[in-house]
Fold this protein.
Amino acid sequence: MGLRTPEQYLASLHDGREVYYRGELVKDVTTHPIIGVAVAHAAIDYHMAEDSRYRDLAVVTDAETGERFSRYYQIPRTPEDLVLRSRLIAASTREGATLVVLIKEIGTDALFAMHIVADELARRGKPEYLQRVRRYHDLCRREDYALAVAQTDVKGDRGLGPGGQEHPDYYVRIVEERPDGIIVRGAKVHTSVSTNTNEMIVLPTRAMASDDGAYAVAFALPVATKGVKLLASSYGGFRKDPFEFPISAGHKMMETLTVFDDVFVPRERVFLCGETDAAGPLALAFVKFHRFTAVSYKLPLLELLVGSARAIAEYNGIERAGHVREKLTRLAAYHATVRGLTDAAAQQCAVVPPGIAVPNTLLTNVAKYQFAANYHQAVQVVQDLSGGLLVTGPSVEDWQSGVTGPYLRKYLGGKKGVPAEHRLRMLNLISDLTASDFGGYQEVLAVHAEGSLEAEKLQTYREYDFDGPAAYARKLAGIEPD
Amino acid sequence: MGLRTPEQYLASLHDGREVYYRGELVKDVTTHPIIGVAVAHAAIDYHMAEDSRYRDLAVVTDAETGERFSRYYQIPRTPEDLVLRSRLIAASTREGATLVVLIKEIGTDALFAMHIVADELARRGKPEYLQRVRRYHDLCRREDYALAVAQTDVKGDRGLGPGGQEHPDYYVRIVEERPDGIIVRGAKVHTSVSTNTNEMIVLPTRAMASDDGAYAVAFALPVATKGVKLLASSYGGFRKDPFEFPISAGHKMMETLTVFDDVFVPRERVFLCGETDAAGPLALAFVKFHRFTAVSYKLPLLELLVGSARAIAEYNGIERAGHVREKLTRLAAYHATVRGLTDAAAQQCAVVPPGIAVPNTLLTNVAKYQFAANYHQAVQVVQDLSGGLLVTGPSVEDWQSGVTGPYLRKYLGGKKGVPAEHRLRMLNLISDLTASDFGGYQEVLAVHAEGSLEAEKLQTYREYDFDGPAAYARKLAGIEPD
Amino acid sequence: MGLRTPEQYLASLHDGREVYYRGELVKDVTTHPIIGVAVAHAAIDYHMAEDSRYRDLAVVTDAETGERFSRYYQIPRTPEDLVLRSRLIAASTREGATLVVLIKEIGTDALFAMHIVADELARRGKPEYLQRVRRYHDLCRREDYALAVAQTDVKGDRGLGPGGQEHPDYYVRIVEERPDGIIVRGAKVHTSVSTNTNEMIVLPTRAMASDDGAYAVAFALPVATKGVKLLASSYGGFRKDPFEFPISAGHKMMETLTVFDDVFVPRERVFLCGETDAAGPLALAFVKFHRFTAVSYKLPLLELLVGSARAIAEYNGIERAGHVREKLTRLAAYHATVRGLTDAAAQQCAVVPPGIAVPNTLLTNVAKYQFAANYHQAVQVVQDLSGGLLVTGPSVEDWQSGVTGPYLRKYLGGKKGVPAEHRLRMLNLISDLTASDFGGYQEVLAVHAEGSLEAEKLQTYREYDFDGPAAYARKLAGIEPD
Amino acid sequence: MGLRTPEQYLASLHDGREVYYRGELVKDVTTHPIIGVAVAHAAIDYHMAEDSRYRDLAVVTDAETGERFSRYYQIPRTPEDLVLRSRLIAASTREGATLVVLIKEIGTDALFAMHIVADELARRGKPEYLQRVRRYHDLCRREDYALAVAQTDVKGDRGLGPGGQEHPDYYVRIVEERPDGIIVRGAKVHTSVSTNTNEMIVLPTRAMASDDGAYAVAFALPVATKGVKLLASSYGGFRKDPFEFPISAGHKMMETLTVFDDVFVPRERVFLCGETDAAGPLALAFVKFHRFTAVSYKLPLLELLVGSARAIAEYNGIERAGHVREKLTRLAAYHATVRGLTDAAAQQCAVVPPGIAVPNTLLTNVAKYQFAANYHQAVQVVQDLSGGLLVTGPSVEDWQSGVTGPYLRKYLGGKKGVPAEHRLRMLNLISDLTASDFGGYQEVLAVHAEGSLEAEKLQTYREYDFDGPAAYARKLAGIEPD
């Protein structure tokens, strides 16, 4: 097949999956009032493949077979491949009104990581994983699947590893090995897009000690597998009018608490099974790609922070004030810094066996760190330039009413020539972006998604070459090498 | 009377006021599903006066008449008066779950300012304003009124003054003077608590040029005055479950676009009428008190940021990690800084004619600046310590369901001994506080309410004595005084 | 005696002390080209006692005996006492051109701490220490002594305590106890003003484990005691012209590596001798006072940062630019914050046995933290407003030369009406303050003197009441108390 | 010739130039006790061309003529050319112990800019400038000249342009035009390396108004031209021992106030002469290259901050503490950010007529802004990790003395196995780097050299494409394009 239509994608979600929302089993995710919004958002991916503006970016052709398939499934081999992947992620997020689509981004991040670790295991005498990974990769590409990745375990006491917890199920684990497969139990938190993908890849969340073998497990499953229960989050889940919530009324991502209630995984779909020393490398290889995905998809968000700040400053008539220019400059420098570091991460990639281009890990983490560390301050600046109407403005009904509407049209005008409607629409956009539950979602994602601020700092510390600079310091200090 | 019961307060709101919500006229604000929450919140003030824990703080007794009345109405004469006023504001906000009550705080801030400016006008030969202010103050105190203050005009192009706008009504103005009073027209934005106060005081928002006489106007009116139309904001206005939204399900403040559609104000209630050189001083005197109110009522909010961060860190099992202690320390220092500066502002007050203690303006503004400049970063820290569950957590129905509930109880536990329910409740609290529309409301208020960040910087610049330090610099540089 | 003249102070330093500078024994510290500058600076203290402008602040009269003595020696009993002590410290530092005088400040900080700990020991059955402390305090006050305090041990590996070091002498210790006294060995680093005080008080630098008894020692000695060797730092020690270095040409503080080469301390002067559980409290009590001294003496430094920034901005003709006002405002807010918190620390002091007012420890540490955390950024702002001439300017000889001088007078003028000389003098002042070794000294002191940034953060963490806020969070979250 | 030896370079400076130091005419700059240090430092450039480790980087061969010449003189045509230029600048600065060599960097920055502007003027009908620029470029390359650039005028009142000053000479100007050349008068401040270059290029410092024709002038001269007077700064100019000052004892850059006392410039060396509309573009084109030079040469400085911080943390035994790792991570992220943005600026260059690769201006300015805005905080971190000994340490004579040396060797040891000498040498390095006049020099350069912080912010504001993001915001807000 290679490429699916949006309609085929929607139809594929009628598969008997077990999704709960507000305590109730969801009959049809595509028509559910809340989850349906997320489904429509995810379909952006399939629309773009058909859209002449995006087709060259979104679709690639296999040189040998002539098969056309989604660029996401193409293994990156060069800096250019990474740049195009990054551009595609940004473009689809821009279509998604700053909300990432993610139904292929995250899954292929996992697939690339699985290739690298399976290749290493093959060199260590276990060739079966690499074969399985390749076949699974081919399957997903051919079927044009939407993929979720479940990585973060519920963890219990975060100060302890899997083995030391009050409860053995606080990390997903193998409870039984059978000739034809394994039985797994446990739960993963905030699994994104899982309500509306075809498949789910499950990865370990951290390095494992040598006696944590049952926790060193990776596999993939159709979402509609017996025993897989998706408890969808209700966060931000209420009907929103698009006038009041220009972004989140039409764009949504679902997260689930994903429970594996003694689920059978066939051997062919098991990608790690007890190799404790490979758990950490797999978790790490995944985030190397996934943080690059993250900084790529954050760029439209930063664009919108800058763009909406600039627009509202003009509408308010303050765009020439010194402090306003200063603030716009800070936003611009913030955006340019993250974008420049992301580009540099692609340019300075490392090609590792089996021939996969990995974005420069130090630069990726530093880009992510700069993004995350400064996001809340950027939000403050945008709110500052907008004014208090962000949280004291009228409703769509007020705007449409013959009684109240005229007052709003008269009194909410800004600079001469700016209609009240433009100003109010821009304020509503910024309110949705920064001062609604969607705004809170973006803030929390900034510090937690794809690894927390601390994770990025830890990785920066590990990737940075301290030895060279320290040797330089000793040389200048006149300290002889030992 | 002196003191009203909560019931009397509620009853007093049945006065025919013209409040619109989502385009519809509200019949009874006390029973309206959204505004009713704000009414109940405001009633905290009257409950506290009856509560033995708070009575001494909330109520004072007139030494001469023996009359008991709300402390808010007491004109501060000493540092101690300001300290107690600040304590009362903090205590009621703490009762309000970090949301200020405000129905007397803001109104008395305005009354104190009006006393000062009217006294100055009396010394300049216009004694009538001071007499009116005194009588109006007596009335409010005696009736134990709830008061709103409408100050911020809609402004149009913020780069221009009242006279230069595209529309003459962008600032509230006198359209006709009559022997018995004046007719006013215009609109004020984000008037807080006006849906549920008895009276509304209207103040100029800025200094006025000498030819802006029609805009130099201050007055007071019952909310239920003909021509006064309150367009209530729908922001955050949906029904919330207290399990999911522990703060905002039960606590709310309403803001209105307040339209004056050719409203008559009797002479007795006019406190400024064309004295352009007094408009700026009145606006400024008001914010001197009102920013002190602000830093007082922000303290419980900062307490809760620290307290919830500490609690969730313990529940997550990370409270001993170095970076966690560092972050808790930064939150603690932030809180202690704002609180210390607020206390110092009271201690170092200035007593001005007619014998009113004004909190130290420099310290008040610096306290407010420290609060506002660092708020978003503090939110980031709290979100950082909490984890992604802030925005991916379950609903109350999931928790109560026999199907999904047991999974949540099993998998959302934290550190040993911490029940999943405690952890989830704390996460919901923090989500409501920082990642909901209420969280966005607090962020926007941080940079806009009671004067923006820029306003506080401007005032800091004006109040700081640069001359002394500059003279010291010249002396040390060996530059002779001219 | 009670009060000495500056001449008596200088004469008292001819006592055979063993001071080394650049490897050579110093014959007379008062006439030494470098140390002599420090002596003259220290004499400010004695001059102020004679100066009618300062006498009331600097000198107090014993109500009973009528004896007049330096205010530093007065034990603070009330907030007002602390405020006046703080004012005196600031005033003398202002006289010292932003360099603290310190010859009584630090010693009395130690004496107050010794009183508190000795009182506690007395209550635990060891009354002798309190008697000794009182007698020693009386002696110092009566003789109007200058006092140094040696606290910071050389420490070796900072990750280890005294007992675990490679070398047992890395912390000062008792090597022999004799009936009439003790023999001590070890060294203390950066002992300030010791080259020119009469006495030196030696305190432990940290809490001690129960088997570190030999290190739990406190005592006092005349500087000129056999075996006490002062190795004075050469940092910043070269002759400076007052035109080029308006501050540091005439103001200097000396630090020494203070070696105790098996020094005998008579019993009467021993204030701690093996009581390991009192070592930490003594170290801590000292810094409680000493950090309050620190924030008091930092105020003139902050004044000068603000004042010189304002002056040079005017000379450069940029004082009205938006970004300049913004920067001056940030400096002003920084100064006002530290000053406000310092005042609040005095106002909110705790009176502890035996009746001594201790500045509020939380507020003191937060004030110090705010000072230290923001100092370098403040320096950046001042340098930013000044221009590159700070480090590319001419010498005093260029200014005086008939060949080069006229070019400087012609070309280095600033805004109309500002003579080149004024501008150059102000630039030299700022260069000395921020871009010379003296500037580096102030930067390093900001993060290390009187406890490092980390020390202040640790103390803030310990002093802040987390329990109250955490209980408030649990209450709002609906979590029942256990 | 193409390449000169260090000896030839030194000999070339005996040319009768008029340099003043501390009011005295300098007979021989190469042997002057202070300026001689700067000359030796500058000679690094010529040594590197002979050094097998650097030759390939430092020298290029003309493909046509086979002539070998300094890479600095090669006009960049591709991203790769810019990357290599950047690497060369960093390598020579690293040899210079973090002090840039600059004797070819800045001059070629100017030459490239002159090519671009002259090419534009040629297209506008004035081909003579491009011919002159090419001949001058050939001359410099062939003679392997050292070049200074004098750009910053003394400026007087910075709030005014050249024409509005109290004195007409506050900007360098043409006082007479003659058939064979022009006479210029005025002075430039902080001209770097001019005491020891062969030539000096003079550029306008800003855009000029149409009636400021006399100030729109650019030209080049041998330093030893009649009427050119160099008043060398005495800043940091004293003899330093290399033990105490490991960097600045052996590395120095001189700045001069460069006076043009009615100097004749022959027509052939005039590159702008009254074309007011080209003055701004020339000033801007220069800084586009020069800020790229700046961020390239700042990298070794950042390396040393990181490296010395890491080394001293280990020596002090604190490298495993959480806060220390946090601080090292912040330094590492700072370094990686500036380096990554610099690389991206080269990669994303623009090739402009006549075929010159210009580093991406937005990214260059953002890199410079990130460097400058965070430099002082980085210094704070390094000082924090080092300890107070930075400013209270011993002298070289103390170290060598038989009396005091043994105490230092005993007491200044750090972690086990770290000799006191290593620790002391590292502390001295950091003290020189951050807490000496050299440290102050670096701080001031950070905010002023190659354009101030404000200049970088202004350029960022101008280069950033606000229109695209603003259009995106309007689209998402539902605002129709006009």
Remarks:
- Chain C touches chain D through 88 residues (CB under 8 Å).
